Amino acid sequence: MPSRGERPEDGAGPVPAESSTLHKEELSSKIKEQKVVVDELSNLKKNRKVYRQQQNSNIFFLADRTEMLSESKRMKTWHQAKF
Amino acid sequence: MLAWPSFQARRAQERVAAGTMVVTNCQEKIQHWKKVDNDYNALQERLSTLPDKLSYNIMVPFGPFAFMPGKLVHTNEVTVLLGDNWFAKCSAKQAVGLVEHRKEHVRKTIDDLKKVMKNFESRVEFTEDLQKMSDAAGDIVDIREEIKTDFEFKAKHRIAHKPHSKPKTSDIFEAEFANDLKSKDLLADKELWDRLEELERQEELLGEIDIDSKPDTVVANGEDVSSEEEKEDQNINVNMMHQVTDSLALSSCYNSLTNSELFNGQVNSPLNYSVNGSSSYHSNEDDDDNNDDGGDSENDHDTLGVEDNSIPTIYFSHTVEPKRVRINTGKNTTLKFSEKKEEAKRKRKNSSGSGHSPQELPMIRTPADIYRVFVDVVNGEYVPRKSILKSRSRENSVCSDTSESSAADFDDRRGVLRSISCEEATCSDASESILEEEQENHQKKLLPLSVTPEVLQLGGYLKNLSLLTVIL
């Protein structure tokens, strides 16, 4: 499952994890997560870097902030639709 | 009739529990493998885009909690773990191929697990239904057999030796005879045999119909039923209860149940346990014990026929198979039952009885004939051995019983014979001398000396035979 780890450092922006589940409780928690992600991403300074964690491993790849923001928003609406 | 004892209910509960455990176990495994599949997908995606750039800015992990910014270089060189600490260096595309291959394996595993889960789910569901029904009924199951009234006789009726003689009624169900032919003892042999064959044919036909018309199958313990029937049949084969028709009563005369016949699945006994009428029954073997991986328990289509009332109903049906009996139609080949008794009484009174029946000498051609003639001595009374001789069922002819029970009882008779005492040793000189002669002549004398007077007298009967091979 795609996940993004939070890294509090200069030029970097944290991205909370997201996951998709079948059950309603888990779905609602996911939606909350997505909300947090979107909020955090939108509140990042412009010079921050966003890293994306590679699934199931400890490697973080640099990712585009704006891209990440839009993706998170999409995921959020998707989860809400599922719910 | 208590057909679903409480231990069955407990077993059902256990089965349900085990089944649900298996199902949850499978679900967990499926979850795990799905996650693995997901991971591989993400990896594949990453690998496919990896060579697009010469280097990537990444966060390099230092131990479990620390990271350092760094670069990922040599983006096309991938080292793949092949297992057992062997690695392979390959390009990103090759790595993608490897990942695809592993994903295939994972997919197969997931499919197998899903199959297993599905099978166990259905099994659990079935067991739960069964349990519900048995709980509702409180360990009581209604067993019904539908009897067709147009059932024909498959063998000839018993013919009384004396027109008004009554059969022995001790230890037997109450007998309701349909007495159409019972008192007739004037039927020609040929007619009888023709009728017998005709009825046999009808019986087979009816048996097939019975099989087809009862789709409700039941997981029932066929073997218990059959063994019970056989035990009882030994005693009451002579006089059976039947509410139905002549044919079934008739067939009872000739049926001696054997294990092989019983276990054919179609029951041979004409017994009718009249609890709530009767029922049709298929000994559908219990498939629940098939625990193959992946499940052959698709066969578990056993269902109880649930009636409108809460008591589960098992449908039961007897079908009667023709007993394979080789019948000699010679006239003088056996003593009739009543005559034997009279003869026995005569012998007892006659202290110096010659042992010969003045009226009839049984024609003895084979050792088997001996047993037809032979009677037990029990408490001073002469009792025919019903289990083998079935003298009552052989009015005018001799049936040499070729069924397996005869073989079984053969040994029993042997034992009985040797244990019989010579209380009534009213041996005539003639018969004794004959016996002694035979003892001299035949080295291999299996018959012990403590033999009944009957045997000695039998020796008298057999004086015409050159070889007395009384092998018991």
Jot down its keywords.
heterodimer, B: 472 residues, mainly alpha, three-stranded mixed sheet, two-stranded antiparallel ribbon, 11 strands
Description:
The complex is a heterodimer of chains A (83) and B (472). Chain A has 83 residues and is α+β, with helices and mostly antiparallel strands. In chain A, strand 1 (12-13), helix 1 and strand 2 form a beta-alpha-beta unit. A three-stranded mixed β-sheet of chain A has the order 1-2-3. Chain A has helices at residues 24-42, 65-82; strands spanning 12-13, 49-53, 60-63. Chain B has 472 residues and is mostly helical. Chain B is built from eleven helices and eleven strands. Chain B has helices at 6-49, 92-137, 189-213, 222-236, 246-254, 259-262, 337-349, 367-373, 404-419, 429-441, 453-461; strands at residues 56-62, 66-72, 78-83, 86-90, 142-144, 305-306, 312-315, 325-328, 375-378, 381-384, 398-401. In chain B, helix 10 (429-441) packs across helix 11. Chain B is rod-shaped and about 125 Å long. Chain B starts with 5 loop residues before the first helix and ends in an 11-residue tail after the last helix. Mean pLDDT of chain B is 65; it is low at 178-183, 214-308, 399-408, 415-451 and 455-460. Chain A binds chain B through residues 1-2, 7, 12, 49, 51, 54-56, 58-62, and chain B through 35, 38-39, 42-43, 46, 56-61, 64, 67, 72.
Summarize the structure.
Chain A is α+β, with helices and mostly antiparallel strands and 83 residues long. Chain A is 45% helix and 13% strand.
| Residue share in β-strands of chain A | 5-15%
Q: What does the overall shape of chain A look like?
A: globular
**Secondary structure category of chain A:** alpha+beta
Largest sheet of chain A: 3 strands, mixed
Tell me the number of helical segments of chain B per DSSP (H or I, 4 or more residues long). Answer: 11
Largest beta-sheet characterization of chain B: 3 strands, mixed
Structural class of chain B: mainly alpha
Topology:
The complex is a heterodimer of chains A (83) and B (472).
Chain A: E1 12-13, H1 24-42, E2 49-53, E3 60-63, H2 65-82
Parallel strand pairs in A: 1-2
Antiparallel strand pairs in A: 2-3
Helix pairs in contact in A: 1-2
Chain B: H1 6-49, E1 56-62, E2 66-72, E3 78-83, E4 86-90, H2 92-137, E5 142-144, H3 189-213, H4 222-236, H5 246-254, H6 259-262, E6 305-306, E7 312-315, E8 325-328, H7 337-349, H8 367-373, E9 375-378, E10 381-384, E11 398-401, H9 404-419, H10 429-441, H11 453-461
Parallel strand pairs in B: 5-7
Antiparallel strand pairs in B: 1-2, 3-4, 6-7, 8-11, 9-10
